[in-house]
């Protein structure tokens, strides 16, 4: 990720960790037969937007308490600048936004 996106170190680790959660959840909980999971990473403003989509629009992500066995979305919220989910015409998407440090972003 460092060479192509100018992101490395702890931020790259955080992004990789955050992507793992919605992908794992989609694999585990999606009830659509032969579902495809899509991961898109794009530059948005002066940061990176990570989107994970799957076709099961009926099962939306719900943050749970750690004592209930669900810490994944709490982790996503702690490591990313912000996150949400959207219901789209044929899928749901969990997205997270990461602000890239000024020294690495928006080349002059």
Shape: globular
What's the helix count? 3
Class inferred from helices and paired strands: alpha+beta
The radius of gyration over CA amounts to 15 Å
Task: Describe the largest sheet.
Answer: 4 strands, antiparallel
Structure description:
The structure is a single chain. Helix content is 31%, strand content 27%. It is built from three helices and four strands. Strands 1-2-4-3 form a four-stranded antiparallel β-sheet, with helices on one face. A hairpin with a 4-residue loop joins β3 (82-87) and β4. It is globular, with a radius of gyration of 15 Å. The model has no long low-confidence stretch (mean pLDDT 85).
Give a summary of the structure in a few sentences.
With 108 residues, this protein is α+β, with helices and mostly antiparallel strands. 31% of the residues lie in helices and 27% in strands.
Task: Give the topology.
Elements: H1 2-5, H2 9-29, E1 38-44, E2 47-54, H3 72-79, E3 82-87, E4 92-99
Helix pairs in contact: 2-3
């Amino acid at each position: 990720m460092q060479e192509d996106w100018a992101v490395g170190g702890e931020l790259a680790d955080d992004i990789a960790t955050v992507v793992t959660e919605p992908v794992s959840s989609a694999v585990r909980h999606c009830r659509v037969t032969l579902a495809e999971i899509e991961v898109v990473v794009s530059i948005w403003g002066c940061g990176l937007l990570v989107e994970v989509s799957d076709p099961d629009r009926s099962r939306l992500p719900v943050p749970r308490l750690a004592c209930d066995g669900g810490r994944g979305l709490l982790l996503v919220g702690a490591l990313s600048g912000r996150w949400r989910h959207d219901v789209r015409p044929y899928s749901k998407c969990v997205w997270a936004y990461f602000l890239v440090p000024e020294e690495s972003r928006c080349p002059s």
